[in-house]
Specification:
Layout: E1 2-6, H1 16-23, E2 27-29, H2 38-52, E3 56-60, H3 62-68, E4 77-80, E5 97-101, H4 110-120, E6 127-129, H5 139-153, H6 161-164, H7 173-182, E7 190-198, E8 203-212, E9 215-217, E10 227-229, H8 230-237, E11 240-245, H9 247-257
Parallel strand pairs: 1-2, 1-3, 3-4, 4-5, 5-6
Antiparallel strand pairs: 7-8, 7-11, 8-9, 9-10
Length: 271
Amino acid sequence: MKILFLHGWTSTPGGVKPTFLTDHGHTVINPALDDDDFEAAVRTAQAEYDQNQPDVIVGSSRGGAIAMNIESRDTPLVLLCPAWKNWGTATTVKNNTTILHSQADDVVPFSDSEELVRNSGLPDSTLIEVGNDHRLADTASLELMLRSAIDACIPEWTDNPDILLQQEWSGLCYTAAKRWVGSVQNEDWVLVHGTVMSKRVGRRVEHAWCERDDQVVDLTLRVGMRFVEIDEYFRIFQPEVSKRYSSGDAALLTFKNGHDGPWDESEQLSE
């Protein structure tokens, strides 16, 4: 998944939040934004958006206001304590926006995000309370930021394997693999969670794929190359398996936990 991350005022590229997204295997465009000239910062963000065509935009504080003031067409927004009252002219957000904010924020009032949701005519569920300060750098906030970005990019639901093989799943391995084994026609496939070696980041990353007999399906690979002989897959990606799930268990785990994985030990099914 390609993410345009717009940092806050006096922040710099490479902070905790963009690093967290990168560490989870995503491509993060994280430009330096002018602290003194808002219009210059907007121009920089717009140029990065136009050049890179990200799957989702994440904006933190002033970066959230910048995200609201660029032309981003139908690209989803994930806004973290957006300081829209302090910078820019935009007073509404589009439908495919998620806002994360802490009630304890002493920099940008939580009520500002409540007002933004009302201005935009969006449901209350658009705004999610999380964290214990303005930074949203705690583990729960970081994980929710990542999950919100992923959820915003998930393709339209289908259980047709032919359509699944054509949809864009970059950076969405857990949902992709769960969708594959969830198809009625693919009930004999096994969902696999583990790690693979990523040449792009030069280290092992968490990943999900599907196996059946001597075949692997990995929907995050290029269209047309998503069926791989299992020996070839293990040779290229050097996977290390942590868990294997039947299609039935995968469905139960998604129902139980409200997400498609990964599932930690506390989220597993009872013996």
